[in-house]
Amino acid sequence: MALSCNLNRYLLLMAQEHLEFRLPEIKSLLLLFGGQFTSNQESYGKSPFWILSIPSEDIARNLMKRTVCAKSIFELWGHGKSTEELYSSLKNYPVEKMVPFVHPDSTYKIKIHTFNKTLTQEEKVKRIDALEFLPFEGKVNLKKPQHTFSILEDYGLDPNCIPEKPHNIYFGRWIADGQRELIQSYSVKKRHFIGNTSMDAGLSFIMANHGQVKENDVVFDPFVGTGGLLIASAHFGAYVCGTDIDYNTVHGLGKATRKNQKWRGPDENIRANLRQYGLEKYYLDVLVSDASKPSWRKGTYFDAIITDPPYGIRESTRRTGSQKEIPKGIEKCPESHVPVSLSYHLSDMFFDLLNFAAETLMLGGRLVYWLPVYTPEYTEEMVPRHPCLRLISNCEQKLSNHTSRRLITMEKVKTFEDRDQYSHLPSDHFLAYQGHNSFREKYFSGVTKRIAREEKSSQE
Question: Which intervals hold domain tRNA (guanine(10)-N(2))-methyltransferase TRMT11 N-terminal (predicted)?
Answer without folding.
Answer: 9-180
